Amino acid sequence: MKIGIIGTGYVGFSTGVGFAELGHSVICVDSNTKKIEHIKNGNMPIFEDGMEDIFKRNLDAKKIRFSTSMKDGVTDADVVIISVGTPTDPQTRTIDLSYVRQSATELAGFLGNYTVIVLKSTVEVGTCDEIEGIISRENPTAEFDVVSIPEFLREGFAVHDFFNPDRIVIGTDSTRAQKVIEELYKPLLGKFPIVRVSRRSSEMIKYASNAFLAIKVHYINEIANLCEQTGASIDEVRLGVGMDSRIGDKFLNPGPGYGGSCFPKDTSAMVSMGLKNGVRLSLVECAIAGNEKRKTDMASRILDDIKGIVNPKMAILGLAFKGGTDDCRESPAVEIIENVLKKSEIEIVAYDPRAMANAENLLGNRIKYARSAYAAAEETHLLVIATEWDEFKDLDLKKIKSTMVRPKIFDMRNVIDIREAKKIGFVCSSIGRRT
Ligand code: NAD
Ligand code: UGA
User: Fold this and answer.
1) Widest CA span of the chain, in angstroms?
2) Whole-angstrom Cα distance, residue 101 to residue 391?
3) What residues are in contact with ligand 2 under a 6 Å CB criterion?
4) Residue 73 has what pLDDT?
5) Can you give the pLDDT at residue 90?
């Protein structure tokens, strides 16, 4: 099948590479000329474990191409997938659907034979109806259906999640569109559950899923706070709680708060969608407020710790919003650094295995950047672990201690072996444990 993808970001690029690997002919379109040139030259636009080989193989085989022209992506396509961004409007705090609307307006004129337009961007309920209206107005003779197929991939696991989804949600009432989509996913059919629902339910499933996960993270963070005060251990508590199959053991890792390009924006979009419809989503509101507070609480813990030190210096390991990605959008690490810098003249040296370039775009020269965890820790009074990269689990703590001014660790991701660190002579604090 011929597939056009509009918006070549995390989702568009991963989806394009995935469908090319499944045997389809894919053209990924993006309005960002620099990005498209970069990719055309064989460069990955994102860091995703295991994706580069698949991308290069399909690029060489010309099964995937990249263009800045909407015409290239839409003309002759059987399926056009819209995967442009849906950020939060900074003024109104509601969802900004302008990129989705603009894509629909731009693509409409190039529609020829019957085409299925898939809306993969995360959108508020009713957006597919709106897109259908835009395309019909722009091109009254176009023959098409708009289908909602939300994306559930996790950054860092995009390859795994594309080929092994928990489910594929298909939102449409059109049997003609349904047949085209089944052809699109044919190589995966039978291997994973397909959830056939209405467009509006499909749009809601995406928000309800992300908000639930965000609430779960917020919940375990609150339980971690209570563990710290009562002497229970979050490691033991989440083990015992997670074994209840009704609860499950996933998304029970406490930390510095959830971040990323989706949970923060999708939870606030959901609250405003609720308000627009006269429904208050108090649990989601709580998670949003609690998550914001968490990042200032983490900063306060750092500030308390360095109080009284002349010319304090701190190392921070991890800048990405979670391990396995170079994405720093709404990263708790970045926000905590900003909060600390607002209240202290502290010198901060940071290290991240993948996210240094993206973090530097956000933090500039307000902090220093080191080439390794060891270099970052040199002559510091405090070592903070903010992202759970695997390499931070196996640090040579003796080596680190020998170069620090004061051997103190604040592990916000509970990745290091506290007992071992204490034996070596570190003073440690972590999350959800009394020490
Ligand atoms: P992104 O910001 O990485 O990429 C969006 C791309 O769309 C950009 O490259 C931008 O230049 C391009 N674009 C914008 N308007 C365009 C236009 N008119 N024509 C062509 N290109 C255009 O975004 P993303 O992270 O891939 O997210 C895309 C959507 O998918 C969002 O709605 C997001 O909520 C959702 N989503 C993201 C993830 C994720 O892990 N990042 C997972 C599931 C769902
Ligand atoms: C999330 C969802 O997991 C995906 O299903 C969804 O497709 C995506 O959002 C989206 O809509 O964009 P992602 O943002 O890649 O994926 O990251 P997650 O792995 O969900 O983590 C989100 C945040 O929660 C991170 O900051 C992470 O560190 C934090 N988290 C997660 C915890 O603090 N504890 C946990 O136990 C799990």
Assistant:
1) 75
2) 42
3) 122, 151-155, 210, 213, 217, 251-253, 255, 258-260, 262-263, 321-322
4) 97
5) 86
- Position in ligand 2 atom list of the atom nearest CA 250: 36
Instruction: Enter the DSSP assignment of 188.
Output: G
- What pTM does this model have? 0.96
> What are 168's strand-pairing partners?
194
Predicted local distance difference test score (pLDDT) of residue 434: 84
| Contact predicate 419/393, CB 8 Å | no
Name the average pLDDT for the chain.
97
* 83 CB near ligand 1 (under 6 Å): yes
Query: 384 forms bridges with which residues in the sheet?
Result: 316, 410
d(CA 385, CA 239): 22
In the chain, the amino acid numbered 216 is: K
Token pair, residue 344, equals: 């202290």
Whole-number Å distance, alpha carbon 68 to ligand 1 midpoint, is 15
Atom of ligand 1 at shortest range from CA of 327: 41
The upper half-sphere exposure of residue 281, i.e. CA atoms within 13 Å in the direction of its Cβ, equals: 22
**Ligand 1 mean position, distance from CA 8 (Å):** 7
Q: What is the pLDDT of residues 24-83, one digit of tens each?
A: 999 999 999 999 999 999 999 998 999 999 999 999 999 999 999 999 999 999 999 999
Q: Which of 28, 128, 227, 262 is catalytic?
A: 262
Q: Which two tokens stand for residue 191?
A: 């291997």
Ligand 1 atom 42, closest CA = 153
Task: Determine the 3-state secondary structure of 192 from DSSP.
Answer: strand
Q: In this structure, what token pair is assigned to residue 153?
A: 């991939």
Ligand 1 in contact with 233 (CB < 6 A)? no
Q: Is the pLDDT of residue 435 over 80?
A: no
Index of the ligand 1 atom closest to the CA of residue 121: 32
Residue 262 is among the residues annotated as catalytic for this protein? yes
